[in-house]
């Protein structure tokens, strides 16, 4: 199954997919669309991706986490136009104990932000738009 | 080689006006040669001097040689999550 989805993410289903009788805990991170960025009022976001590479990179990150900790990992990232409050990304990690589930969850979201080719265009209340660029001053580049 | 297919994403596709370009290159051309051609196109001067380039889904250095069947892509700074 692809790690990318245009349809709304089912957070509960992603979390349930890593639960099992021998796993005592599920840690999760859910990234939601926020209504502001750098002091500007955001009305919606559009995510796009280099889909073949993004899916492969997410699979690699999941495999790395499952190799490093005794856990099961699921991750989904949404693409397309999202409204304020929509879930953009879900990471769920099931394991026998909490330490490894929190550690693996943190690892997956940080590596996702660093390595996965996904881009985000913000639309503001004043009708302007910009590309989010974590390397740019202020975190955006005007479209 | 005849030409190489280049995928452009997000802001870079906007700068060059297309998500996909066919670029004619000399035999034994490198990633660096390709970037130089792209930066000379209309809108291309806003590309960084050293953009993140992948060849067949793997990050490539500027010295890597290209063949016509390669899938080359220029990736703006990533912003997922």
Model description:
The complex is a heterodimer of chains A (143) and B (81). In chain A, 29% of the residues lie in helices and 40% in strands. Chain A contains three helices and ten strands; from the N terminus they run βαβββαβββαβββ. In chain A, the strands form two sheets. In chain A, strands 3, 4, 6, 8, 9 and 10 form a six-stranded antiparallel beta sheet that branches. A four-stranded mixed beta sheet of chain A has the order 1-5-7-2. In chain A, α2 (51-68) runs antiparallel to α3 (98-115). The longest helix of chain A is centred in the middle third of the chain and has 18 residues, at 51-68. Chain B is α+β, with helices and mostly antiparallel strands. Chain B is built from two helices and five strands. Chain B has a five-stranded mixed beta sheet with strand order 2-1-5-3-4. In chain B, β3 and β4 form a beta hairpin. The longest helix of chain B has 9 residues, at 31-39. The radius of gyration of chain B is 12 Å and the shape is globular. At the A-B interface, β4, α2, α3 and β8 of A face α1 of B.
Secondary structure blueprint with pairings:
The complex is a heterodimer of chains A (about 140) and B (about 80).
Chain A: E1 4-5, H1 11-16, E2 25-32, E3 36-37, E4 40-49, H2 51-68, E5 71-78, E6 80-83, E7 87-95, H3 98-115, E8 118-124, E9 129-132, E10 140-142
Parallel strand pairs in A: 1-5
Antiparallel strand pairs in A: 2-7, 3-4, 4-6, 4-8, 5-7, 8-9, 9-10
Helix pairs in contact in A: 2-3
Chain B: E1 4-8, H1 10-16, E2 20-23, H2 31-39, E3 52-55, E4 58-59, E5 71-75
Parallel strand pairs in B: 1-5
Antiparallel strand pairs in B: 1-2, 3-4, 3-5
